[in-house]
Design goal:
The protein is mostly helical. Helices cover about 80% and strands about 0% of the residues.
């Protein structure tokens, strides 16, 4: 029962860190600085970031207990001070978890104590980036040895950052779209945000593809391609790739069909409502697929890759 708990805790940390980084950045580059439709005026922005930070802080600490329990063989042994101390002080994974918890706690304090503003969002995004980057020490990138170890680790960090910007934006879009009848100004702001994310999204896909190839070279490699369908790691990785392609298809539909449809429908209630409903469905599905990808990543981190066999 310990390993499933570890996977759930890993997933919660991925989600918390990526929302903390990606959503706060989204408030800066995609939404207006003030007025209707801005992040400062929306009542849910602070709650979202505070909840993400709290989730990350708590699950990062519980992850230390989970890892200690897995290593010692039982929850009772894992809760012993000497076991926890060994994980926190003797393992990079434990140190990274503490760093994530501290960064998340600081982010919560900033969100709850400072006035909503671009400065606040940037400060939270910086803490979120630190937390998201530290996720690489939960994966295989930090365990690579040899001359390419730094390349793999840096690639893992960049991969996590790109995913965070995408996932964080999806969560923000989902919350923006939940209002059945937004004000005209809010709808215009949403349309601009969709356009703003389109350019960012192209860069994210490029980074994800490039770092994915690098990570695949280290974890699978040309000599172990058969492992993509003969090993548990390979099968889960193949499923992840299928889901990623599905996300690309949904993102393309949003950019080239649904966003222009919303633009054409601005000011025409019936067309605007239909366009918003279509966007709402598409973003909901894309977010669900994105969460499934994160769940697979959390699971993959506990399995041995083909290159290690």
């Amino acid at each position: 029962m310990l390993e499933p708990a570890v996977i759930v805790l890993r997933l919660a940390q991925y989600l918390g860190a990526m929302v903390l980084m990606g959503s706060s950045l989204f408030f800066v580059y995609a939404l207006p600085g003030r007025g209707d439709g801005s992040a400062a005026e929306a009542p849910w922005t602070r709650r979202l970031l505070a909840a993400a930070g709290a989730l990350l802080a708590v699950t990062a600490l519980f992850a230390v207990i989970g890892q200690a329990s897995v290593l010692s063989g039982s929850l009772t042994e894992g809760l012993k001070p000497e076991t926890l101390t060994a994980v926190v002080t003797g393992m990079d994974l434990g140190k990274a978890a503490i760093a994530r918890a501290v960064a998340a706690a600081l982010a919560v304090i900033l969100v709850l104590s400072l006035k909503p503003s671009r400065t606040t969002w940037m400060a939270v995004a910086a803490l979120g980036a630190l937390a998201t980057g530290s996720l690489a020490w939960m994966g295989h990138g930090a365990a690579t040895e040899g001359g390419g170890s730094s390349v793999h680790l840096i690639s893992d960090i960049l991969h996590a950052w790109a995913a965070a910007v995408w996932i964080g934006a999806l969560v923000a879009f989902l919350l923006l779209l939940r209002t059945p009848t937004p004000t005209p100004a809010a709808t215009v702001a949403l349309h601009r945000a969709l356009h703003g994310f389109s350019g960012v999204g192209t860069g994210l896909v490029a980074v994800l593809l490039a770092t994915g190839v690098i990570n695949g070279w280290f974890l699978v490699g040309p000599d172990h391609l058969s492992g993509l369908w003969t090993t548990p790691y390979g099968r889960l990785l193949s499923l992840k790739l299928v889901l990623f392609v599905a996300m690309l298809g949904l993102a393309a539909a949003n950019r080239f069909q649904l966003t222009p449809a919303l633009g054409l429908g601005l000011g025409a209630p019936e067309r605007e409502g239909a366009a918003l409903a279509a966007l709402r469905r598409s973003v909901l599905i894309e977010t669900g697929v994105g969460l499934a990808v994160l769940a697979l990543v959390a699971w993959l981190g506990t399995l041995a890759p083909p290159a290690a066999m």
